[in-house]
Design a protein that fits this description.
Belongs to the PhoH family. The protein is an alpha/beta fold. Helix content is 44%, strand content 16%. It has two domains: 97 residues, 2-Layer Sandwich (Ribosomal Protein S8, Chain: A, domain 1); 189 residues, P-loop containing nucleotide triphosphate hydrolases (Rossmann fold, 3-Layer(aba) Sandwich), CATH 3.40.50.
Length: 336
C-alpha cells in the first residue's frame, strides 16, 4: 500500500478559498473523486491528503484553478473536471491558455470559452477549414460549440444565415406515430440545438431569427437539391446518415460557407445492415484539402465525471464484444 502524505495549499484571501470550494464544496468533491485525495479546509489553508503522486496532482489542480480565480474568471464544475483531466494526462501546464479567449458572451453576459484541448482544436479547425467533422461521445461540447461559432460568424457578417439539420432517424422511437409533417416530427429531436440557441441569444431572439429565415432548423431531407451560399451549416447526429445522405449534404456546400458535421459513431441508430455515412466519410475524405476531422474521446467530456466513466465502460464492452466475435470467426475457420 502506497504511503499516505499531506500537503497544504495556502490561499491569499477568503474569496479565493470560497470560489475554489464551490457551493456546498462541490468543486472540492470533484477534485477528491477524480484524483483519489481528501481535501480539508483549515483556516486559510487547504490540506490535501492521499498518495504522494495524487496529492501532487491535486495541489497543481488547485493552483491552476486559483490562477483563474485571480484573473476574475468564475470557474464552474466543467472547469474543475477539465483541470483534473488535464492533470491526469500531464497537460495541466497548458490549462490557463484555454482561457485567454472569450468565444462569445451568452444572453446573461457569461463568457463562453473552450474547456479542453479537444475543444480548442475543434474551434481552430472550424476557423481554418471549409468543412470540419467533430466525432466523439456525448458531452464533449460538439453541438454547443458549433452553434457558438455559427452565431459568432453571423454577428460578424461572415455569413447571412445559419442552417442546422439532422437525419430523421429515431433512437428507438417511431417518428411515424408523431403528429404533423416531417419538420414538426423532427423538431423535438432538435431540442439540444434550440437549448444552445436559447442559452446564447435567448428564446425570443432565436424565434425572431427563425421567423425571418436567418436561422433554419430542419431535417436533412430538406437539404436535397439546394446550394447553400453565405451560410454556416451544421449537421448534427451525422452517424445516422447513410452514404448517399452524407454525399448529398456535403455537396450542398456553396461559396462563402462553412460546414460542421458532428456525430458519435458509438450511437448509430440506422436499421440493421445500413452503413453509416459518417464512418465512410472518415475513410473517403481524410486526405481532402480544407476538410478536417477532430476526434474527441472520453477525456474531452465536460459533463459530470461519471459520464466519462460511462463512455469508457461502454467502449470497453464494445471492444470485448468485437474481440469475442473475432475469436468466434477464427474458431469457425479453423474447424472448416
Amino acid at each position: 500500500m502506497a504511503e499516505q502524505t499531506s500537503k497544504n495549499f495556502t490561499f491569499e484571501n477568503i474569496e479565493q478559498q470560497t470560489k475554489l470550494s464551490g457551493t456546498n464544496e462541490a468543486f472540492l468533491k470533484l477534485i477528491e473523486e477524480a484524483l483519489s485525495v481528501q481535501l480539508l479546509s483549515r483556516g486559510n489553508m487547504l490540506a490535501i491528503e492521499g498518495k504522494a503522486s495524487d496529492v501532487q496532482l491535486a495541489y497543481q489542480v488547485v493552483g491552476a484553478l486559483v490562477t483563474l480565480i485571480k484573473r476574475q474568471i468564475n470557474i464552474s464544475q466543467a472547469d474543475v473536471v477539465s483541470a483534473t483531466n488535464m492533470a491526469q494526462r500531464g497537460t495541466l501546464e497548458y490549462f490557463g491558455d484555454l482561457y485567454t479567449e472569450v468565444l462569445i458572451r451568452d444572453q446573461k453576459g457569461r463568457s463562453v470559452r473552450v474547456k479542453n484541448f479537444g475543444q480548442r482544436q475543434y474551434v481552430q479547425s472550424i476557423r481554418k477549414n471549409d468543412v470540419t467533422f467533430g466525432i466523439g461521445p456525448a458531452g464533449t461540447g460538439k453541438t454547443f460549440l458549433a452553434v457558438v461559432m455559427a452565431i459568432t460568424a453571423l454577428r460578424r457578417g461572415e455569413v447571412e444565415r445559419i442552417i442546422i439539420t439532422r437525419p430523421a432517424v429515431e433512437a428507438g422511437e417511431s417518428l411515424g406515430f408523431l403528429p404533423g409533417d416531417l419538420k414538426e416530427k423532427v423538431d423535438p429531436y432538435m431540442r439540444p440545438i434550440y437549448d444552445a440557441m436559447n442559452t446564447l441569444i435567448g428564446s425570443e431572439h432565436t424565434q425572431r431569427l427563425v421567423e425571418r429565415g436567418v436561422i433554419e432548423i430542419a431535417p436533412l431531407a430538406y437539404m436535397r437539391g439546394r446550394t447553400l451560399d453565405d451560410a454556416f451549416i451544421i449537421l448534427d447526429e451525422a452517424q445516422n446518415t447513410t452514404n448517399q445522405q452524407m454525399k448529398m449534404f456535403l455537396t450542398r456546400l456553396g461559396f462563402s460557407s462553412k460546414m460542421i458535421v458532428n456525430g458519435d459513431i458509438s450511437q448509430i441508430d440506422l436499421p440493421r445492415g445500413a452503413k453509416s455515412g459518417l464512418i465512410a466519410a472518415q475513410r473517403i475524405l481524410k486526405n481532402i484539402d480544407h476538410i478536417n476531422f477532430i476526434n474527441f474521446s472520453s477525456v474531452d467530456v465536460v459533463r459530470h465525471p461519471v459520464v466519462g466513466q460511462i463512455v469508457n465502460a461502454y467502449e470497453a464492452a464494445d471492444n470485448r464484444l468485437a474481440e469475442l466475435k473475432k475469436e468466434q470467426t477464427r474458431d469457425g475457420l479453423s474447424h472448416n
